[in-house]
Write a sequence for this structure.
């Protein structure tokens, strides 16, 4: 796929219909005025403190996430298709998780290899036989989409554990509405501001049976975590407590928060801590982040953890190729959203092909995240490719490979002015009594020319995403 799809302009260089209002504003606004608005945005983001730690940099070195003023705009009909595909996919993934921790029908039927699931390090045997409220495992899902050169959308990854970035989606919208309110008056742009209320409703719906007025808390690893800003932001927006492990304790399989007024029972915990660190009596014993006894309280049905432990087996990259089959198996429907063609290096034929074509492909560790543990063949040196080849040969099952997609581009302000930069899109899907996809999501942008790595943890930037309602 070597074609390039420009989100704003067609092949003749004209603005696409859904970009005409913005293009008109851009052409009629003097450059100094735009520069002033960009500076205003930067100052405002500094004041809000919207930062992110970049791995590999000095500990404690937080940086402002670059924000770009050119929005990604999605026309109404396109969003309706994406929304239906997202809901379908998340529904099937939740059914898959309930099945593999229950009857394991899809494994017995041979639709997904048994060893791929039961031997997966993200599969938590502690979850087997446990019935979760409403059958929902991933209450908050972040599904990464890309548009390739052929103009089609593809699902790149399913994030079912602790997907981050939604706070940037909300702050980006606030900023754009502040900088150019006239464009929001001229078009019907779907609001995203109700996300905190929708999230709180989803979490409250997940409370253990018999609880009429559940208490919700957000559990964070602490201020040293790279996404701490988001944890604090979401707790504040929902009007619930932000707690660390030391703020909670378990007595008689019931979770309490320590407060100045005495212990307060907690019914639902939106945990932003990985499985391994949730409860030292069950998972990693050396963890100082979790709460002793928390998993016991969860098993006893006295507290709900969102997302559920063990959801990682659903978004593992080695399981990703089987999501279309999950949709057919559980829903008897054809997938609406495409998967990227994927070679599984645990298969000998796939391994041989990939080793012969490494300079052309993207290779990923099955448990990798944040853009780490991957090889982008066309952007790598011969030495980097050969080093990665050795890593693959040492453990082929630890990798998958995909063709190098030509991600779509969107004009982006860089030092030299407006220039095309590659982008992706992470919509957020909430699963409670119903499944709802927030209109839009977080558009991430690779700020280096030609780079395909958009992750904020590697210095990428963000854009506001506008879904037009008509």
């Amino acid at each position: 796929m070597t074609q390039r799809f420009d989100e704003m302009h067609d092949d003749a260089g004209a603005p696409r219909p859904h970009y005409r209002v913005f293009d008109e504003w851009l052409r009629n606004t003097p450059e100094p005025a735009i520069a002033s608005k960009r500076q205003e945005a930067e100052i405002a983001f500094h004041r809000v403190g919207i930062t992110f730690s970049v791995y590999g940099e000095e500990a404690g070195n937080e940086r402002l996430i670059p924000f770009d003023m050119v929005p990604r705009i999605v026309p109404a009909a396109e969003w309706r298709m994406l929304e239906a595909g997202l809901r379908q996919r998340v529904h099937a993934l939740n059914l898959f998780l309930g099945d593999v921790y229950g009857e394991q029908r899809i494994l017995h039927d041979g639709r997904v290899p048994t060893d791929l699931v039961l031997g997966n390090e993200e599969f938590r045997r502690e979850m087997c036989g446990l019935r979760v409220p409403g059958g929902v495992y991933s209450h908050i899902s972040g599904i990464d989409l890309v548009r390739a050169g052929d103009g089609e959308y593809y699902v790149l990854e399913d994030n079912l554990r602790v997907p981050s970035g939604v706070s940037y989606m909300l702050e980006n919208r606030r900023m754009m509405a502040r900088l150019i309110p006239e464009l929001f008056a001229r078009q019907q742009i779907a609001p995203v501001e109700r996300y905190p209320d929708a999230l709180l409703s989803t979490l409250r719906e997940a409370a253990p049976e018999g609880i009429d007025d559940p208490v919700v808390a957000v559990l964070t690893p602490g201020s040293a975590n790279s996404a701490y800003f988001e944890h604090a932001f979401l707790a504040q927006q929902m009007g619930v407590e932000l707690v660390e492990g030391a703020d909670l304790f378990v007595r008689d399989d019931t979770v309490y928060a320590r407060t100045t007024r005495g212990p307060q029972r907690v019914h639902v915990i939106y945990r932003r801590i990985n499985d391994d660190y949730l409860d030292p009596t069950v998972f990693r014993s050396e963890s100082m982040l979790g709460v002793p006894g928390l998993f016991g309280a969860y098993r006893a049905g006295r507290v709900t953890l969102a997302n559920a432990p063990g959801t990682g087996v659903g978004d593992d990259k080695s399981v990703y190729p089987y999501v279309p089959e999950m949709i057919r198996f559980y829903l008897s429907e054809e997938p609406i959203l495409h998967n990227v063609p994927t070679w599984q290096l645990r298969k000998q034929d796939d391994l041989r092909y990939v080793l012969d074509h490494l300079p052309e492909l993207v290779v990923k560790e099955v448990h990798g995240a944040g853009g780490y543990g991957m090889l982008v063949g066309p952007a790598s040196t011969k030495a980097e490719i050969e080093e990665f080849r050795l890593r693959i040969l040492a453990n082929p099952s630890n990798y998958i490979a995909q063709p190098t997609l030509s991600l779509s581009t969107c004009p982006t302000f860089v030092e030299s002015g407006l220039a095309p930069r590659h982008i992706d899109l992470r919509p957020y899907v909430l699963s409670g009594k119903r499944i709802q996809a927030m209109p839009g999501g977080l558009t991430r942008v690779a700020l280096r020319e030609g780079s395909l790595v958009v992750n904020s943890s590697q210095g990428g930037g963000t854009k506001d995403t506008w879904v037009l309602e008509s």
